[in-house]
Amino acid sequence: MRIIVSIKQVPDTTEVRVDPETNTLIREGVESIINPFDMYAIEEAVRLKEKHGAETIVITMGPPQAESALREALALGIDKAIHITDRAFAGSDTWATSYILAQAVKKIGEYDLIICGKQASDGDTAQVGPGMAAHLDLPQIAYVKKIEEISQEKKMIVAERLVEDGFETLKAPLPCLITVVKEINEPRLPSLRGKMRAKKAEIVKWNKDAIGVEEDKIGLRGSPTQVVKIFTPPQKKGGEIWQGEPEELGARLAKELKKYL
Amino acid sequence: MLNYELTEEQKEIRELCRRLAEEKIKPYSQEWDEANKMPDEVLKIFAQSDLFSLCIPEEYGGMGGGLLDLCIATEEISRIDGGVAASYAASFLGMFPILLFGTEEQKKKYLPRLAAGESIAAFGLTEPEAGSDAAAVKTTARKDGKFYILNGTKHFITNGGVADIYTIIAVTDKKRGPRGMSAFIVEKGTEGFEFGKKEDKMGIRASATRELIFNEARVPDENLLGGREGTGFIVTMKTFDQSRPGVAAQAVGIAQGALEMATKYAHQREQFGRKISSFQGIQWMLADMAAKIEAARALVYAAARMVDRGEKNSGPASAAAKLFASDTAMEVATQAVQIFGGYGYMKEYGIEKFMRDAKITQIYEGTNQIQKEIIALDLIKRYTK
Questions:
Q1: Chain B contact residues (CB < 8 Å to A)
Q2: The whole model's pTM is what?
Q3: Would you call the peptide bond into A175 cis, given omega within 30 degrees of 0 as the criterion?
Q4: B236-383 has which CATH code?
Q5: Out of B7, B87, B222, B325, which residue is the most buried by the measure of CB atoms under 10 Å away?
Q6: Is residue B75 flagged as an active site residue?
Q7: Which residues on chain A are in Cβ contact (under 8 Å) with B51?
Q8: Which residue in B263, B249, B257, B333 sits closest to B79, CA to CA?
Q9: What is the CATH number of domain B122-232?
Q10: What ipTM was predicted for this assembly?
C-alpha cells in the first residue's frame, strides 16, 4: 500500500498576537508548525503503515522554510518527503493550490490513499483536500473519525465520518482521499531515531516544471478567489441588565422590542 | 544555561524530552501524585520515543550514547515531574549491572528488550537492615543443581512490581563477607518471587516503590550476573558510580522546574502595590537559586562525562555531583515555596510537590552522608600517602 499525506506549514496561532494599533497579526518571531489537523493525518498514515505495511509519502506546497515541516513528518515516521516549491506558486488560492498538489500526486504515480487534515488553522477553508480529490477525480470522505477497514486487495476503504448530528459509515473504492478530524487518533511525539534520521534525510524538491502545471492555473493569475478586505469584526457591545418587578420589566421589554419590528 | 558544548544528538534529546514532559506529563502530574501510582502510559511514550535506548550500545539495540545523554533526559523530565523521572531512571539503575558485568549471553538476552522499552528494570539491594551498610544484605542464594534458590526480602525498591527484570544482590557465601555477595537477574513471574507492601511516599509519588519477597525462588544458574559468584559488592559500587549522576540530574531538573515556577509567580504576584519580583529580597533569592543550579548542572555534566570517558576515579566525582545537586534541589525547592508564601503551602499551586520530590534525592542511591564518606576517603587516600 502507498499512502500520501498532504500537509501545510502554518504559524503557531497559540503564539500569535494582534497589533492593537493596526489590527494585523504580529508574525515576527512566531514559530511555524505543522497545521495541527495535519498531525492527525500523519499519525493515521504511520499507524496504517505499522498495521498493514505501507510506503508513506508526505507532500507540502510552500516556501523554502516549509522544509522543516517535512522533516518533522519524517521524524514522526513518514518514509519520504516531497517539497513542492516555486516562486510562481505564490498567491495561489485553494483552487490553484489543490490543482498544484494534484499535479504532484499524479507525478508520484501509483497510490492507494491520500490523507489530509480537515482544514488548516490559518485559512480554515477545508477546501484543499476535497479540491485535490476533484482535480484527481477521486472518491473522497471528509471529516473521517475512524477508518474501520482498509484493504489493498479488495481495493476499498470503510470509514466513519463526522456529520453535524452524528456520524455516517461510508464505503469507497481505492484510491481515495480522506480528510481527518482530531477524534481519529492521538498523535505521537517524534522518536529520537526518527529525529536523527529526519535531520539527514534528503528531501525531494519539485518546481512547476517538474510537476507540469499550466501557467494560467497557478499563482495569483490562476486563483479565482480575490481577497477584497480583511477586517476584525466590530466588538459586540455589552448587554444591559434591567432590574424591577416582572410586570414592569415585561412591559418595558415589549416596548423595546417593538422598536425593531 | 551555560554552553555545555552538547552534541546535536544531545540537543535533540533535550528538546524531545522537554516537549514530552510539557505535553504528556505536566497536565496529569498532580493527578498521578495524588493517586500515588506509576503511570504505565508514560513509560510507553518514553519507549515509543526511544528514550529507553539511551546509554545502551547499538549492538544491543540501543542508541549508543553515554551517561550524559541519560542525565539530560532525566533532568528535563524532572523539571516537570521528579516522580516520573524516578521510574524512568530506576530502570537504568536495574540495567547498568547487566551492561557493566553481564556475560555476552545475558547482554544479548536482556539489553535489546530494555532498549526497546518492552521491559522495565529495577535494582534490588536495600533491605530492612541493609541500607547505607550495603554489605549487611541478608537475602541468601544457595546453589541447587542448575538453579540458585533465593530467600529474603528487599524493600523500598523503585519500580518494584512494575519492572519485568530485577537485578538482585544476595549472599552466596556468608563467610566471605562483602566478597560473598553475588548479583542475579531475576525475571518477574519466577516461581517463589513475589511482591509485598506498596509504599505510600512523601514525594516522587508517580513512581512505584515496593517490597520484593523471595521464598525459595528458583533462579536458573545462567542468570548469575557475569557467571561468577562473589561480584555482588563490586557490582553494587560500580553501578552506583554510573547511576549517581542520574540522581544528581534529577535533582537539577527538580530545582530548575521550581526556579522557573517561582520566577513566574514572583512576576505576577503583587503586594504593597507592586510585583514582588521588584523587591530586592526576592531578586536575591532567585539569583542565589539560579547560580547554585547552574553550578550543580556543570558538576553533574562533568561527572557524567568522566564516566563516559571511562576514567577510573569517577566515583568521588559522581558522589560530589549527587551531594551538591541534591542539596541544591532541596534548598531551591524550599525557597521556591517561600516565594509563593501561603499559596506555596497549598497543594493546588503545585510548588510544594517539588519540595517533597527534592527530599528523596538527598537520601536514595546512597544518603548524602555516604556520599561525603566516599569523597573524604578518596581525599585521605590521595593526600596522605
A1: 8-9, 12-13, 16, 19-20, 23-24, 45, 48-51, 53-54, 63
A2: 0.86
A3: yes
A4: 1.20.140.10
A5: B325
A6: no
A7: 192
A8: B257
A9: 2.40.110.10
A10: 0.83
